[in-house]
Specification:
The chain has 287 residues and is α+β, with helices and mostly antiparallel strands. The chain has helices at 2-11, 13-45, 64-74, 130-136, 176-179, 211-258, 260-268, 273-286; strands at 57-60, 78-90, 93-103, 113-117, 125-129, 143-146, 153-162, 172-175, 189-195, 207-209.
Amino acid sequence: MRTVFLASLRTHLRRYVAAAIAVIVGVAFVVVVGVLTSGARSGLMDGFGAPYRNADHVVSELGTKAAIALAERHGQNASAIGRAMLPMRAGDRLFPETAVGPIAPSEEMRWQELGSGRFPAREGGAVVDVWVAQAREVAVGDRIRIGEGATATDVRVVGLVESPSTSAQASVYVTWPQLLQWRDHPSLSLGRMAVRGEVGRLPEGAKVQAPEAFVTEKQTELNNNVNTLSVMLLVFAGIALFVSVLVIANTFSILFAQRLRDFALLRCVGATRRQVARSVRREAATG
């Protein structure tokens, strides 16, 4: 029976390989879904609370005009979170949409991590995210133009920074007075504010929370979104596994049907029912 078993494997090798590939694809799909979900959750969560770590309160659900008024009222004790999408020109290269965000006036409220150079002390200076600088071939000391038309401004890159918070990330960061140059630009969005000390009177619809409560709430929302994505991907993984089962079942049903005569011949030459069944189980286990 061992000789018959080995001969069967050689004869139907392609079918067994197809079944094995189906199993591998299905299992790999499930593993990849798990890795991607874990990576997405880690990437979203890491550094999320960085912009609020030295604040006493977080004010959210603000309109841009209300955020500007609140920031002006609190001065050094406020750090606005948001960005404007503006064209940027570096040398002879034009980048149509670049996220431009503000740097907190107070050093204690700055959440970007300085990699090289320095933060700008006044208008006319900017820091660039290190990955953006690498992709766009921008270095400390270069001059870039931000904006278009009457609001276009030349600034000098005085430093490179890392942005640990994906929710507040921008490509270029300028001083708060510099950002207000584009206060009327339709793409400017300032929806959150980190505040030290008492918040005072808030505009209608605004929400104030402790930094820990705000970060926990947003992390829960992000986690739920990642879980939803995970469920969707697992549905496709389940479909892949179901197809794998169909391929395997179809493979062995075809092989079994084709070999009914072989089994009958084996019984005629003296093989017992148990030996034939054992041979089939071996092939199934091998496949």
